[in-house]
Amino acid sequence: MTRLIVTGTSTDVGKTIVTAALAAAARSAGRTVAVCKPAQTGVEPGEPGDLAVIQRLSGVTRTLELARYPDPLAPDTAARRCGQPLLTLDETVAGIDGLADADLTLVEGAGGLLVRVGEFTVVELAQKLAAPVLVVAAAGLGTLNHTELTTRALDAAGVRCAGVVIGSWPRTPDLAAECNRTDLPAVTGADVVGVIPEGAGSWAPERFADTASSWFMPDWSHRHLG
Hints:
The chain is an alpha/beta fold. Helices cover 39% and strands 23% of the residues. It contains nine helices and seven strands. Helix 6 links the parallel strand 5 (133-137) and strand 6 (161-169). Helix 6 runs parallel beside helix 7.
């Protein structure tokens, strides 16, 4: 059993599509996969959320969402606004433990590393699970600072960074993106282990699943995805 937590340097950097790609790549390698999204915000009851996107693109059917709040805010704020209790670390770990029979369990956080998922942050969940964290970063200006801050926070917490994935690589990258792709490992101490093409989330599921494995470094995929 392997666990991998997916976080971002901020919101809207591509965590959900990266999680779907990881799931698809692992399934292509013959592994069973489960995905947990502890807290979903900005979605009403009955509406499709991030897990529906992951299911559609990767073919994974074993998913777990522990809490859902309608306002598109940080989960703790959204929970307080609608009068729901905050997720606790213990109930979240228990939910993830319930997926332990899968070869690989992916856990997608909310926003960045220090966003409150409930009564805890993603980094505290990683500590409790003793799980590595994969950081999803943007390609353009600002990403060096955001990514280094994230990897420094992981290091300070004693949590292993599993690498950096660029969540959306432009069809026509500009100078900043090209330089950032080179500079990210130097400033963070973590390899860029994957690059997701811009717009991949809108691809047909068959194309997405058939291509996802090629977006990650082969040696890294072998170690983490099977």
